[in-house]
Every structure is written in C-alpha cells, then in structure tokens.
C-alpha cells in the first residue's frame, strides 16, 4: 500500500484535504485567521538613528493603543456580558500609562518601536504576575494587547478569530485552546487548520462544539478569503466551488435521524450494558452532555476551567466550578480529574514553560512535587462540592506512571475524604504494570490520546506524525488489553475487580468504541456529540461480535489494517456517513 493510499483511505481527493476530526458536512465562505505575532521586528538602522525617532515612535504607539482600545470597546458592545468584561479590560490595557511610559523609556534609550512595546509589555506583565490574584490574571491581557498594537503598527489584521456578523468557515494555521474556547459555533460553522494533529485539543474542542473540523489540511493555505467551500469533517475533504453534488451531501447529512438522539442507555445488541459518559470541561459543556443523555461524566477536565490563569484559583471559585457540573448529574457518576497542567495545557502557576520537552516533563500528577499543596487544596474543594450534591463523585489523577504514585494519590484523596480514587492510564508503564498499579486504587480510565502519543513516541500535536499517532495502532490496543488483564489480576487478590473505562476520544470513534468494548472496557466517555452515533453503532453488534472484532484489530499488522478490517464488518458506518 502506498503512503498516499494510507492517508486517503477515507475518500477521493477533491481539493485540499487533511484529517477529518469532527464529522459534519457544510458549505460556507472562508474567513482566514491572522497569524499570531511572535517576534518584534527591528526598524532599519537609518530610521532608528534619525533625529526625533523616539518622540515620533512614542506618539505612534499611543495612537495605535488608542485605536486598538476603540476597536475592543466596539466589540465589547456587540458581545455578551462575560465577553464584554474581557474585552473592556483589554481595551483599558491598550492605553495603560505604565505600558506606554515603559515603552517611551525604552525608545528614549535607543530601542526600535516594536522591541520597545514588546519589552514594555514583558515588564508590565511580570509586575502584574508578581502581585498575584486578580492582577496576575491581567498579564494575559498585556500580551494580547501587545500583539494588537503591533498588528496596528504594521497595518495587518489583528491576530485571533476574525469578527463577522455572518457565519463563516474559519481557516487558520492552528488555534490556541483559548481561541477555540471562545469560538461561537453559531458564527463559525466549520474549522480547517493547516497544522495540528488529530489528537490536539483543537480537535477535542471542535468535536465538543459539534462543528465539522479538518486539521493538517494540505493546501489550506491556498484557500482565499471569501471563497465558497464544502467541508466534510468526517472524510477530511474540502472542495472549492461546491456544486449540486456537495449541496445534496450537506442536505443528506442534516437529515440523518439516528445520529441525533441517544436514549441514555449504552448497550450492545444483546444487552451487554456499556455506560456512555461524557468528557466535559466545565458547567456549560456538562449541561450540553446532560441534555444529550450522557449517563454521567467520565472525565471532567478541571484544567479547562482555569486555562490561561496566572494564579491558582481560590477555594470558593473551585467549589463553584465543580458544583456547576455535579448539580446536573444527581445520582450519576461524575469522575473529576485533578488538574492536568503541562504540555499543551500550560497553567502558569503550576508548570514551567521553559522545559525543553514539556510532554515528558513535570505535568499532570507530577506537578504535586513541584507545587505541593495545589492538589490537596483542589481535592478539598472537590470534596466540599461533592458533599453538597447527590452526584456519585469519583476522583482520578492524570499521568500516573508507577504503583507508588497511584498509592500517593489514593492517600491524598482519602485525607480529603474522597474514597474510591482512580488513575488514568496514559503512560505505557501504567498499562504494562496495571495489576500492581490497580491494587492501589479502585478504577482506571484509559486516556487514549496520551497513551497513543507515549506508546508511539509521536507528539499528539504534530500533523506530520498523524499516521503513527493513531489509537488504532495495534500496539496501543495491546496496551488496552493489558490494562484490562491487569485489572482482572488485581481483582483476583482483593474484594472487587477495578473497572477500566476509556475517556480518551478514541471512545468517540464508533468503530473503535466497538473494539474497546470487545477488549473488556466497561464504560466509554466521549464528547457529548458522539453519544448518539456511538450508541447507534454499538447496538448493531453483540458482545461476542465485539470481542471477535477486537481480537482481529489487536492481531492486525497496522493501524490501517485494524481500522479497515473493523469498518468493513460494520456497514452501518457508511450508511450513516461516519
Ligand atoms: C487523554 O490523554 O486521552 C485524555 C483523555 O487526557 P487529555 O486529552 O486531557 O490529555
Ligand atoms: Mg491525557
């Protein structure tokens, strides 16, 4: 099989194409996102040496600041209350006297206009960070405003999601988690990025928003502003100048009824129950999950409540954030994951941005050693919120590598009054030593994104490694199998067998979900939008069929072969456009 075949197994090449990471078919107009400004440019030496440069540049910076502030205030008037607060705070920062005074001092000392505002922003941000609390939060505004001022000076569009009164398809190089988190799905109807991997947080959030998305789209850079295009987020194809065939495909996708409703009971055709739970990042997503019939929450990514924060959130704020999820699931399971800071989700108050290899660095549970107390305080807040609600709250730790880490986490949870703690299996060592790890805790949840990136040694963010970074890789499936076997071995020497669920988004791929169930996974947690398609496909197979498909997938020679073998045995996938 050629490399081309391996990459295009899903469909014909009709235009630029990439990896479809969130299904859906749509036609719309392209709006391009301006690239981030990542370095200041020096002026030419002659201009810098000219008389009056510093004075003139000081005035230009102030004018640029005023015009950025005016634009941000206009946007604040057009948005909701929460957005208006963020934009108004940024508008104030654009004309902040300390920022401009610091830049004027740098200009007077002979710096160029862009380096002067660049360094002034760094000074002001460092000062705000040192004050902690609310002031530290404003440091992010300083950097945002700095980019906008430089864009204004250069006469290029400001970085970030473009403003628009009408719906559009967003085409970008990549999106930061904060861009995606503030994206309005009623305006942005699809996402196409030229970089990013299938396992990135951009992909996760696009699925959570339920908008079609394609990442690593070769040729996306040639899509022109305002052009009409067709996007198929399942097949990963883009068609420029769509015709009647594409319009019919959009209509057909919109009319597929079985994919819209989940009745709240995950099961195979012969009644083997598989609770289908939701992955959520906070109260708003939890409400969507409850409305979609989720049987509970299998992963509350607590770091998503605090992305971009420069200081540890206070106790009351944390209690409120967790309670907003618990209150929606009375009597249902809600698995809260302790802060998973680091790698592609840096939290400045916990992680070290200068680590050379952050995915292999101090992230997840490991941050407890660097910043002792943050985890204990988080567990106390979870315990308080849990005590006030009827949800069946469980806690698990990310990035557990050894049995002793699992034991340490369980002990910390017990101290907080949280019993029945669990661990995520994302590091291959935890899967290989699952029997020993699971003797220390009550359950495991496999994070297939990270388990895949660490098993295959392939950064989940890198588009170029997408073929390796595929949860269908037999090596990854083998580790899932080993984890289930380890849980059974642990169960043989104690009162009960630890349950093993999957909360990585592999569970959201209906064909792979069948394989996971066949491997002995007891619950599947996914973005709420995937509940209906996963349930629909699971109901077409018996448990015995799932087991035999799982055996075929583990025995396959490649991810391609595993996927193709299973998909061929599930014709319903094609009927539903999945
Ligand atoms: C995973 O790694 O699969 C997982 C669920 O955790 P996250 O995506 O938040 O890293
Ligand atoms: Mg993970």
Q: What order do the helices and strands come in, and which of them pair?
A:
Blueprint: H1 3-7, E1 17-22, E2 25-32, H2 45-49, H3 53-77, H4 81-94, H5 97-108, H6 113-131, H7 133-137, H8 139-154, E3 168-172, H9 177-181, E4 188-193, H10 201-209, E5 213-218, E6 228-232, E7 237-240, H11 244-254, E8 276-280, H12 283-291, E9 296-301, H13 315-326, E10 333-337, H14 367-370, H15 374-387, E11 392-397, H16 403-415, E12 422-425, H17 428-432, H18 434-438, E13 443-446, H19 448-455, H20 474-492, E14 499-502, H21 510-518, E15 523-526, H22 531-538, H23 543-555, H24 559-568, H25 572-575
Parallel strand pairs: 2-3, 3-4, 4-5, 8-9, 8-15, 9-10, 10-11, 11-12, 12-13, 13-14, 14-15
Antiparallel strand pairs: 1-5, 2-6, 6-7
The structure holds phosphoenolpyruvate (PEP) and magnesium ion (MG).
The site of phosphoenolpyruvate has 10 residues, from strand 9 and helix 19.
């Amino acid at each position: 099989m050629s490399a081309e075949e391996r990459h295009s197994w899903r469909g014909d090449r009709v235009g630029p194409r990439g990896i479809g990471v969130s299904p859906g078919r749509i036609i719309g107009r392209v709006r391009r996102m301006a690239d981030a400004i990542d370095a200041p440019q020096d002026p030419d030496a002659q201009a810098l040496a000219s008389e009056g440069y510093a004075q003139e540049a000081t005035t230009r910076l102030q004018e640029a600041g005023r015009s950025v502030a005016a634009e941000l205030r206009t946007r604040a008037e057009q948005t909701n209350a929460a957005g208006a607060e963020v934009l108004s705070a940024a508008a104030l920062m654009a004309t902040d006297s300390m920022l401009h005074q610091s830049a004027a001092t740098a200009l007077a000392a002979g710096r160029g206009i862009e380096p002067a505002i660049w360094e002034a922003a760094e000074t002001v941000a460092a000062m705000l960070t040192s004050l902690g609390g609310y002031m530290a939060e404003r440091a992010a505004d300083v950097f945002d405003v700095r980019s906008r001022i430089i864009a204004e000076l250069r006469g290029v569009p400001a970085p970030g999601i473009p403003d628009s009164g009408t719906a559009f398809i967003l085409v970008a190089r990549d999106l930061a988690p904060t861009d995606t988190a503030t994206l309005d799905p009623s305006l942005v109807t699809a996402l196409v990025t030229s970089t990013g991997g299938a396992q990135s947080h951009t992909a996760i959030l696009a699925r959570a928003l339920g908008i079609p998305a394609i990442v690593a789209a070769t040729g996306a850079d040639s899509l022109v502003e305002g052009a009409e295009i067709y996007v198929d987020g399942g097949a990963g194809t883009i068609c420029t100048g769509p015709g009647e065939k594409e319009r019919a495909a959009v209509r057909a996708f919109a009319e597929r009824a079985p994919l819209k409703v989940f009745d709240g009971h995950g099961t195979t055709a012969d009644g083997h129950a598989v609770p289908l739970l939701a992955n959520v990042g906070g109260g708003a997503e939890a409400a969507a999950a409850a409305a979609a019939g989720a049987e509970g929450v299998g992963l509350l990514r607590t770091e998503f409540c605090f992305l971009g924060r420069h200081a540890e959130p206070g106790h009351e704020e944390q209690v409120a954030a967790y309670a907003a999820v618990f209150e929606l699931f009375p009597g249902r399971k809600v698995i809260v994951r302790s802060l998973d800071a680091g790698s592609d989700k840096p939290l400045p108050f916990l992680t070290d941005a200068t680590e050379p290899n952050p995915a292999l660095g101090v992230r997840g549970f490991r941050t407890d050693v660097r910043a002792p107390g943050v985890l204990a305080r988080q567990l106390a807040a979870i315990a308080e919120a849990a005590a006030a609600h009827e949800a069946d709250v469980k806690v698990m730790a990310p990035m557990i590598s050894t049995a002793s880490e699992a034991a340490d986490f369980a002990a910390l949870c017990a101290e907080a009054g949280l019993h029945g703690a669990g661990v995520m299996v994302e590091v291959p060592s935890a899967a290989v030593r699952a029997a020993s790890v699971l003797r220390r805790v009550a359950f495991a949840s496999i994070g297939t994104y990270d388990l895949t990136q660490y098993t295959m040694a392939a950064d989940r963010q890198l588009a170029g490694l997408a073929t390796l970074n595929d949860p269908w890789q037999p090596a990854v499936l083998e580790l899932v199998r080993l984890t289930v076997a380890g849980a059974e071995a642990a169960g043989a020497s104690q009162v009960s067998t630890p349950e093993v669920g999957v909360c990585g988004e592999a569970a959201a791929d209906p064909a792979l979900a069948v394989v996971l169930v066949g491997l002995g996974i007891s619950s599947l947690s996914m973005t709420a939008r995937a509940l209906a398609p996963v349930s629909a496909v699971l109901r077409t197979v018996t448990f015995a069929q799932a087991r035999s498909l799982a055996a075929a997938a583990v025995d396959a020679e490649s991810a391609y072969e595993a996927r193709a073998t299973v998909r061929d045995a599930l014709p319903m996938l094609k009927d539903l456009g999945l």
